[in-house]
## 1
Amino acid sequence: MALTDTKEMFRKAYEGHYAIGAFNVNNMEIIQGIMEAAHEEQSAVILQASEGARKYAGSPYIVDLVKTAVRQYPEIPVALHLDHGSCFEVCKDCIDGGFTSVMFDGSKHPFEENVRITKQVVEYAHAHGVVVEAELGRLAGVEDMVSVDAKDAIFTDPEEAAEFVALTGCDSLAIAIGTSHGAYKYSGEPYLDYERLEKVGKLLPNYPIVLHGASTVIPEYVAKCNEFGGKVLGAKGVPEDMLRKAATMAVCKINIDTDIRLAMTAAIRESLVKHPENFDPRSYLKAGRQAVKDMVSHKIQAVVGSSHSI
Ligand SMILES: O=C(CO)COP(=O)(O)O
Ligand SMILES: O=C[C@H](O)COP(=O)(O)O
Ligand SMILES: [Zn+2]
Ligand SMILES: [Zn+2]
């Protein structure tokens, strides 16, 4: 199978009450680790590149590395997705460059402006056989969300979500229900607004919802980073059982970047400290790649639940 879009994988995930893991890729070792895990678990997977990843590696490198990986595991459905495209031009560049899915993140814009640009991206993408993820609601800085007013101000409004999808024709929608990006998601108790997710699911039946900021910030990797000279303090993510529950609901795509960063950094730190005489990058990058693979295998089994689903 060549690279594919996300339609079929989301359809099956929705019906099967699981989700597809969307993992951020920045280099060859990360791509290889994720693909080895997807192959071992016989699961579809989404490889996503942010604007930062495209700048770091060079977009054609990412596209060609992913295409090479897809040739190696022809039975694994793989989508190549743009993560958080900030404008029409970046989305167009990815569509023209071989991506099978793009996100336009207009969440910082007023509703009408978000609708306008999302529509423009959808029009171009669909004409080129590419699917579009959009975003509504604000993900950042949810500090111990307690009051209903505070939630309503930041989280996605279910009725607006339904209206947004109807107006734009986007193929999936990222919503804000309590997650946030990075390693420091909650200063108090972890929280996900399932009631809101349920409402969105009712208003948008059979429609794939996306959860950004869905790393667990796996404690053993944080501990290992710190054991081998790192300083990652006070990090907290979304517990696995909470994500698993969301995956059984309307959530079909679970975004994971921070857990990759932590797994890879922990393994590289350990390797460098344990083998101070070594200066061959292949040695510590191999350890990093193995950690990515192990972490992604675990996610596919225990969090997104997509093992043996192809
Ligand atoms: O949402 C993400 C990428 O778009 C990643 O989220 P994390 O920072 O929780 O891994
Ligand atoms: O949501 C953001 C992703 O974690 C990508 O991060 P990045 O822009 O630093 O590549
Ligand atoms: Zn195989
Ligand atoms: Zn994100």
Note: Strands lie at 20-24, 45-50, 78-85, 101-104, 131-136, 172-175, 209-211, 251-256.
## 2
Amino acid sequence: MSMAGVVLAGGKSSRFGRPKMFEEYKGVRFYEYSINALFNSGVESIYIVTNDQLAPSFKNMKAKIIIEDESHHGPLYALSYAMRTIQDKDWFFVLAADIPLVSTDFVREMCTLAEQSINDIIIPITGDKEQPLLALYHHSCLPIALELLAENRKSMRPLIEKANVKYVHFSSDQKDFMNINHQEDLTQIINKEIT
Ligand SMILES: Nc1nc2c(ncn2[C@@H]2O[C@H](COP(=O)(O)OP(=O)(O)OP(=O)(O)O)[C@@H](O)[C@H]2O)c(=O)[nH]1
């Protein structure tokens, strides 16, 4: 079994107001947290998937950069583009750069689940929230994803509905899975209102 880590970092950040993947928490940029969580976790190689405008601003020796041929088509397109580009891996561990504080232990535990899995997708549930952008996707998802994209269906949801999905419950620090969409979300973490 071989696995690639895929950091999704090519969104518009329209709610945040500036490219949020480059924001810092405790002196580390969001996308670097995602890379660090994947590093030494069982994932063999790490990729940042982004667009041509943002690409020059990523600086990290641990990850390679994949530049989408078309920008802003959303996470399903980004994942399928990564799967088309990286052809020698069975599994793709997706981490959204705007959920930066996930731990290596979480990634390791998910990787262990993939070893014996006959599923197409493994999705964690944290609290009562499904986390499709912190999930494992088998290469078998690619034809389904391409079919959906050809129908202009760009959300992850129809892929999840069509694929064979395993859900796994995680109880963890709320902060680990905090999704940063607005500047106030970051302020909340910094002010330790979320513990
Ligand atoms: N590579 C890539 N990543 C994306 C794309 N769209 C969203 N993402 C990433 O997916 C994660 C979730 O994105 P969202 O917060 O839903 O969308 P966003 O465009 O970043 O932000 P909003 O404009 O505020 O909705 C973030 O880490 C984004 O960087 C895309 O088209 N390509």
Note: The first helix runs from residue 30 to 38.
